[in-house]
């Protein structure tokens, strides 16, 4: 069984490898601006209706118009009010989950007394409890890793998927992070026998035309999304990637964490659009931007000079 | 000095809708009072084209003729700026220290000399950096 999976993976990744060369070329600035599709599999778009359902290599975004103003709008890429998060159908917390949720103070979403919060009482409290970021305790605001699944939810920052024979990589523009998904047939590590990771340990396999990624071994200090939903080190994440067409990648994520949630939490389907190489060109370069969070900038400059003053911390009086 | 603008409700709603993801990401809607929006002539003192949050420091002369030193952020980041044609060189030239610009600001709810910049207009009346 495992060898069949491996063979299938090898075939798929071989196709993907064709894309790597082209994708690598996109990283070279010379002539990068005029070019071909970011997927690298072929120069132009495939014939209408024809696409390789396993060609997930490429650059993906949930806000295509931030790369090309003329791109068709993608209302289904959008999220409910309050910002881009994991999902609105939050399962009830366990007592431990409630405790950790209350301890996470987010600077995102709507302020509790805002008219937006009052107009959207149907939203889970996680999206209606925001405080000024200077008063929050979001690990991200001091440049700690976002981890998985949070990094998959950032937008409009794109991420690139790169398929190699034994691993599928994801490179994220936001925080310039990467993550590896092993497709060599290995199984996830035993609990208690590893260093917890912000990005977890991940394996992937194809189930039909769906690429399924399973991860565990997480560092419990990361948040599930910007709203401060917690997870424990027992969290198991399953991601299901499926190409709807050549330019549309659907992702649905399930978090199973009995320490925190009374049942599995299934995200809404996140719809991503392929970014063409030409649309990645900016400032004489093409590719993902290094949107890194360096404490020298974020903590020493932005937080002190702007974020904290906006929260009334050390602000100058008028 | 400050001129509060009467922004048409529909216009504001449209602007907020467009900016919603960025706002939510930055938490700007929590820190700043977006229902208050006013134009302000200002002199740039520092512009940081830094990831992931650019900063703008500027001076304003108040009614008493005193100079106030303000701290602010723009609801965008260098990645978005460069994709809309505002690379480092062009942006830094447009916001060189000493440059006088007209800013559209939403003040920090906490008060103080802190605001969110939603629009920057140069001396020719052209919208720069924020408008693309």
Report on the architecture of this protein.
- The complex is a heterodimer of chains A (318) and B (132).
- The model of chain A is unreliable at 1-44 (pLDDT under 50).
- Chain A has 318 residues and is α+β, with helices and mostly antiparallel strands.
- The longest helix of chain A has 26 residues, at 2-27.
- Chain A has five helices and twelve strands.
- Chain A has a domain at 73-160 and 170-271 and 284-310.
- Chain B has four helices and seven strands; from the N terminus they run E-H-H-E-E-E-H-H-E-E-E.
- Chain B has helices spanning 9-26, 28-31, 78-83, 88-94, and strands at residues 3-4, 38-48, 55-61, 67-74, 100-107, 114-121, 127-128.
- By secondary structure, chain B is of the alpha+beta class.
- A five-stranded mixed barrel of chain B has the order 2-3-4-6-5.
- The model of chain B is unreliable at 1-22 (pLDDT under 50).
- Chain B has one domain (3-128): OB fold (Dihydrolipoamide Acetyltransferase, E2P).
- The radius of gyration of chain B is 14 Å and the shape is globular.
- The interface between A and B is large, with 54 and 39 residues.
- Alpha-carbon Rg of chain B, integer: 14 Å
* Poorly predicted runs of chain B: 1-22
The level of helicity of chain A is 10-25%
Q: Which class of secondary structure composition applies to the elements of chain A?
A: alpha+beta
The CATH topology of chain B turns out to be: OB fold (Dihydrolipoamide Acetyltransferase, E2P)
Just name the CATH architecture of chain B: Beta Barrel
- Class by helix and strand content of chain B? alpha+beta
The topology string of helices and strands of chain B comes to EHHEEEHHEEE
Number of separate structural domains of chain B: 1
Q: Order of strands across the widest beta sheet of chain B?
A: 2-3-4-6-5
How does the major sheet of chain B shape up? Answer: 5 strands, mixed, barrel
Mean pLDDT level of chain A: 85
How much is the average pLDDT of chain B?
83
Based on DSSP secondary structure assignment, what is the total number of beta strands of chain A?
12
Basic shape of chain A? globular
**Which H/E pattern describes the elements of chain A?**
HEHHEEEEEEEEEHEEH
């Amino acid at each position: 069984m495992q060898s069949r999976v491996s063979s299938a993976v090898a075939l798929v990744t071989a196709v993907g490898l064709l894309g790597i060369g082209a994708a690598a070329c996109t990283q070279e600035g010379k002539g990068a601006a005029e070019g071909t599709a970011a997927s690298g599999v072929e120069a132009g778009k495939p014939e209408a209706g024809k696409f390789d359902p396993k060609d997930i290599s490429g650059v993906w975004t949930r806000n295509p118009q931030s790369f090309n103003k003329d791109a068709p709008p993608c209302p289904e890429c959008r999220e409910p009010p309050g910002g881009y998060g994991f999902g609105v159908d939050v399962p009830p917390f366990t007592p431990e989950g409630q405790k950790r949720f209350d301890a996470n103070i987010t600077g995102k979403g709507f302020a509790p007394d805002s008219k937006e919060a009052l107009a959207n009482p149907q939203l889970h409290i996680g999206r209606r409890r925001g405080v000024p970021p200077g008063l929050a305790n979001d690990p991200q605001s001091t440049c700690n890793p976002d981890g998985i699944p949070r990094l998959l939810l950032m937008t409009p920052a794109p991420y690139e998927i790169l398929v190699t024979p034994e691993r599928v990589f994801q490179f994220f523009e936001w925080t310039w992070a990467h993550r590896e998904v092993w497709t060599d047939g290995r199984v996830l590590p035993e609990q208690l026998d590893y260093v917890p990771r912000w990005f977890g340990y991940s394996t992937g396999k194809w189930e039909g035309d769906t690429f399924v990624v399973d991860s565990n071994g997480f560092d419990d200090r990361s948040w599930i999304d910007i709203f401060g939903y917690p997870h424990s080190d027992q969290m198991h994440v399953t991601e299901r990637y499926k190409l709807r067409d050549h330019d549309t990648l659907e992702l649905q994520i399930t978090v199973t964490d009995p320490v925190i949630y009374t049942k599995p939490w299934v995200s809404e389907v996140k719809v991503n659009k392929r970014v063409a190489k030409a649309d990645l060109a900016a400032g004489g370069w093409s590719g993902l931007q290094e949107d890194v969070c360096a404490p020298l900038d974020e903590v020493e400059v932005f937080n002190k000079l702007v974020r904290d003053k906006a929260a009334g911390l050390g602000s100058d009086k008028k | 000095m400050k001129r509060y603008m009467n922004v048409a409700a529909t216009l504001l709603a449209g602007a907020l809708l467009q900016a919603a993801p960025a706002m939510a990401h930055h938490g700007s809607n929590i820190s700043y009072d977006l229902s208050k929006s006013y134009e302000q002539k200002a002199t740039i003192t520092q512009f940081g084209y830094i990831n992931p949050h650019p900063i703008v420091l500027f001076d304003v002369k108040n009614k008493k003729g005193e100079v106030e030193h303000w701290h602010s952020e723009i609801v965008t980041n260098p990645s978005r700026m460069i994709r809309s044609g505002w690379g480092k060189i062009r942006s830094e030239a447009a916001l060189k220290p000493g440059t006088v610009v007209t800013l559209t600001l939403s003040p920090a709810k906490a008060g103080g000399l802190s605001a969110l910049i939603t629009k920057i207009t140069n001396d020719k009346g052209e919208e720069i950096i924020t408008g693309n």
